[in-house]
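Supplementary Text 2. Reproducibility record for the structural model of the 480-residue chain.

All settings were left at their defaults, and a single model was retained for analysis rather than an ensemble. We include the record here because the model underlies the residue-level annotations in Supplementary Table 4.
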Amino acid sequence: MTKHLKYMIFLSVVAALGGLLFGYDTAVISGAEQSLEVYFIDSLGLNSLFQGLTVSSALFGCIIGGLISGVLSNRIGRRNSLITAAVLFFLSALLSAYPEFLFFTKGDPSIGLFIMFNLYRIIGGIGVGLASGLGPLYISETSPAKIRGKLVTLNNLAIIFGMLVVYIINWRIAAGQSTAWIHDIGWRYMFASEAIPALLFFGLLFLVPETPRYLILKNKDEKAMDILTKVNGSKEKAKAIFDEIKETVQKEGKKKARVFSYGKLVVIVGILLAAAQQFVGINVILYYAPRIFANMGASADGSMMQTVLIGVVNFIFVLIALLLVEKVGRKPLLLIGSVGMGVGMFGISALSFADSLGLGALLFILLYVAFYNLSFGPLVWVLASELFPNKIRGQVMAITVVANWGSNLLISSTFPSLLEIGAGVAYGFYGVMCVLSFLFVWKLVPETKGKTLEEIEEHWTSKAEDQSSAAYSTLEERKA
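Retained model, structure tokens:
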């Protein structure tokens, strides 16, 4: 392995730790969800809507993090924004584990304590919102085109690995313990455990540089050239890439680019990709897995162990996606994934209507999870890091992240209420969303395999020019 490739992998691994914490923070709730219901919801006499909001409270923070990620990354840089995320992860881990901190005592649950817990989860969510967009963006802006897809997929592999790690930790915390102990103490250990990877992420970020594209945007050409040389292995390659980036940046000059500078279609595709990733129902499975398995008859310990099985399937199929993304391409994998996910969700729905949630339902869940992680799981973030032109990338990535977490919040918070209507109806709805995702990808999503970010930008420039010409022709026809 060459020196420059080792360096590139090191940068990607460090950035991908943000993905690990993204997965860790969003999945830790699955182990604590039923304990939080007992500790807060039941003791305070709240209903299922509050339970859904408690499970999903971090997602409010994710939306905030997404909203500020574009401005923050353009103001202080991609790396410094990730450092900010690391600090938020650490604070949220400790404060969520002990929300009584500001009350200076561990008393009986109260509305005030309930509110503070959710505020601390929102703090962590802001970190997730920052990391979810900026981790792939950092990797994309430092990666050579021929391996960019694999390296950005590494970020999603880290997300899934973070989920698998926390599933195992949650299971080991609960193993052999009484249900009362888990509801009183165990859930605190689950949240606190996140502080360790957060500290590691924080420290390693000081060993990596800012991205060359950001540095060029800030007129720090010498630093950008140095990083491009280290990443690409030669000054000749670095100079060619530098000139290409510089040219795209200078097209707009000093004028601030508007979000729709390259037409509306690129923004719409980004929003719909982000929404589709959530509307197919993945986080219903991830956040509520122990509850789903408990409804199938598994014990508390057994339901945690089956959640680990989901984590293993997640990891294996993201690994397969990592191997296939540059060979098969992004679009074909998304289409294949939509079909497999649809079969899985419709299968679970049918078994729910038949009141037969046993081994068959588990197999359909694993089928759904496998196809999701072969496609929409990793590849939406790969595409999001590639699709948007340089001058508007930070802005549109922020919009995409907000759309993603907003959709996640809507789906996750409404699931408990939807279950009260009927599990078959809930899973059938997500199956329909899988069908719609297939049609959307087929019609609107371009293939980006093997293309430089500047070549992809030219695609949207051409699309915008075609749309402008069509609109002008229509106007002239009306005048005539």
